[in-house]
Automatic annotation (TrEMBL):
Subunit structure comment from the entry: Homodimer. Interacts with FtsZ.
Organism, scientific name: Faecalibacterium gallinarum
Biological process according to GO: division septum assembly; FtsZ-dependent cytokinesis; septin ring assembly
SUPFAM superfamilies: Cell division protein ZapA-like (SSF102829)
Function summary: Activator of cell division through the inhibition of FtsZ GTPase activity, therefore promoting FtsZ assembly into bundles of protofilaments necessary for the formation of the division Z ring. It is recruited early at mid-cell but it is not essential for cell division.
Main location: cytoplasm
Subcellular location: Cytoplasm
Organism placement in taxonomy: Bacteria, Bacillati, Bacillota, Clostridia, Eubacteriales
Domain of life from the UniProt record: Bacteria
Coiled-coil intervals, chain numbering: 70-118
Protein name (record): Cell division protein ZapA
Record keywords: Cell cycle, Cell division, Coiled coil, Cytoplasm, Septation
């Protein structure tokens, strides 16, 4: 469902049509308004449009860096999953080998016991 949300940013009112919640859009608008206001306060000669462009550049920079970080994390997770799969395969192999050696040891103990019985008679 599309919601129409009215927001005030840098003294101008905007109507935003969105499927996001009103509260979410208001929080975004509030952050943008605060960021633009801060830039304009620090640089009195800066227009709202220029401040908005600087904010957009900053947000895009943050987005790209976070996207890169997310990709890096996905890659690391894939590596960890592959390492875990290899470790599990190695564990399964060792367990199978261990079970085989246990059976072999049991068979050898039985054989030794039979041989000792044969020596006693």
């Amino acid at each position: 469902m599309v919601n129409k949300v009215r927001v005030m940013i840098a003294g101008a009112q905007y109507a935003i049509a969105t499927t996001d919640s009103e509260q979410y859009i208001l929080s975004l608008a509030d952050k943008l308004d605060r960021d633009i206001s801060k830039l304009m306060k620090e640089n009195p000669s800066l227009s709202a449009t220029k401040a908005a462009v600087f904010c957009a550049m900053d947000y895009l920079d943050e987005y790209r860096k976070s996207t890169g970080s997310a990709e890096n994390m996905r890659s690391q997770i894939q590596d960890y999953i592959a390492d875990a799969a290899r470790a599990k395969a190695a564990e399964d192999k060792v367990k199978a080998e261990n079970e085989s050696l246990r059976r072999e040891a049991a068979a050898l103990r039985e054989q030794l016991a039979r041989m000792r019985k044969g020596e006693k008679t």
